[in-house]
Specification:
Elements: E1 2-7, E2 13-24, E3 27-33, E4 37-41, E5 47-51, H1 52-65, H2 82-85, H3 95-106, H4 111-118, H5 122-131, H6 138-150
Antiparallel strand pairs: 1-2, 2-3, 3-4, 4-5
């Protein structure tokens, strides 16, 4: 669809109006839009004059009859669910939690079991175990967890 600037009879550009032209199957249509009304020029020469309010009503009616395809958009990355994140993420650990965490880890609990028990994500559990000196690094915790799950 091409959009052309409309001109007033004296040839000066009009800021209040513009002309839209388009073709369908080789037939040319022209819509002359003014500030209060618009005129549609059909390919066979017929003219349809309506107020802008009438055109808006017609456009609404056409929208109910002719469904335009929805624009395809890329899916938005999902935020981590509360289960993946853990509802206690960001909540301070208590001394009791620390003692319980160390005891369970020392008794052979897996990260999955600890995540469920403390309602925290894996990163939170492994970071806390390192802070409590259960292992030197988070990777050491993960390696031990894998051994426990296989073993």
């Amino acid at each position: 669809m091409a959009v052309e600037q409309a001109h007033s009879p004296d040839g000066s550009a009009s800021n209040d109006s513009h002309t839209l032209t388009w073709s369908v199957d080789g037939s040319r249509f022209e819509l002359q839009v003014g500030s209060d009304a618009a005129r549609l020029c059909l390919p066979d020469g017929q003219l349809i004059d309506l107020t802008n309010r009438e055109w808006a009503g017609l456009a609404n009616a056409i929208g109910m009859v002719v469904k335009t395809p929805k624009q395809v958009t890329k899916p938005v990355a999902k935020k981590q669910s509360t289960q993946e994140k853990g509802t206690n993420t960001g909540v301070r650990w208590t001394e009791g939690d620390d003692a319980d965490l160390l005891q369970r880890w020392s008794n052979g609990a897996t990260l999955s079991e600890l995540m469920t028990r403390f309602d925290r994500n894996e990163g939170g559990i492994t970071s806390r175990l390192v802070k409590l000196k259960a292992a030197p690094t988070r990777e050491d915790i993960r390696v031990e967890d894998e051994r426990r799950r296989k073993g």
